[in-house]
């Protein structure tokens, strides 16, 4: 069949790419890892994996030889060890998805402990910095970085000061990174999901109504679409909100 008549799937361009996804033990990170694997990427999954059964569950879903290694994004040595292992196994990173994150408790500023504040900032903001810095030496021209932010990087939710601050900070980091990497043609995508049906809600609003939330698989489809565009085009901000509005 002549090439001009062949209809290739948009995600064909991802075939054979190496994708590292943090926070990939469940939720949005696991859905993105699965979607990237379905698009032909070789995936490297990072999370703390405190329950060893999580890794065997992932290998059942994604394949027995799937690379999934414990990594705590708050810990510089743990992050370095993870990307050293990725380098040894794959030699490079074409797609980095900085997704690991926590919500923390819902508490007004006057009641928020320093320990809770620090845990959220270290995970959502410093973790993104540490993983990006460790991955960049493995990334060449034409690579992509997706930073999972949140609609709380654009607005705020009262009772969630640490989370809002971490995501506003991560948006500033993301926008700076995009400018710094333009010359190397590494594109940087800021992902801004609205309410998505994952376990994160148990941390601050266990009774949150789930019916109107977006599924993690829908977020993953949008990420794969953005990554499938020609390398000369960047979806700089990918904002995905529930059609039915806020909760
Ligand atoms: N769900 C939403 O409504 C929503 C909306 C906007 C943005 N987001 C963002 O989406 C991202 C993923 O959240 P989710 O909703 O999918 O929540 P989730 O189901 O709770 O998943 C969070 C992931 O992050 C990992 N993680 C947490 N702390 C970590 C650490 N210190 N080191 C390494 N991995 C760590 C967790 O794995 P381990 O516990 O095994 O380490 C897990 O894989 C977060 O950045 C979140 O802020 C979520």
Question: How would you describe this protein?
Answer:
- This protein has a 7-stranded parallel β-sheet with strand order 3-2-1-4-5-6-7, sandwiched between helices.
- Helices cover 38% and strands 14% of the residues.
- The protein is an alpha/beta fold.
- It is globular.
- Helix 3 runs parallel beside helix 4.
- The model is unreliable at 1-8 (pLDDT under 50).
- The longest helix is centred in the middle third of the chain and has 22 residues, at 114-135.
- It has one domain (13-240): 3-Layer(aba) Sandwich (Rossmann fold), CATH 3.40.50.720.
- NADP nicotinamide-adenine-dinucleotide phosphate binds next to helix 1.
Sheet bearing the most strands, described?
A: 7 strands, parallel
- Structural class comes to alpha/beta
Computed CA radius of gyration, to the nearest angstrom: 18 Å
State the separation between the terminal residues, measured CA to CA: 50 Å
| Count of helical regions | 6
Question: How many domains make up the 3D coordinates?
Answer: 1
Strand proportion, as a percent range, falls in: 5-15%
- Bound heterogens, unique: NADP nicotinamide-adenine-dinucleotide phosphate
**What's the mean pLDDT score?**
95
Based on DSSP secondary structure assignment, what is the total number of beta strands?
A: 7
The CATH topology: Rossmann fold
Would you list the SSEs in sequence order as H and E? EHEHEHEHEHEHE
- What is the CATH homology-level superfamily? NAD(P)-binding Rossmann-like Domain
Strand arrangement in the largest pleated sheet: 3-2-1-4-5-6-7
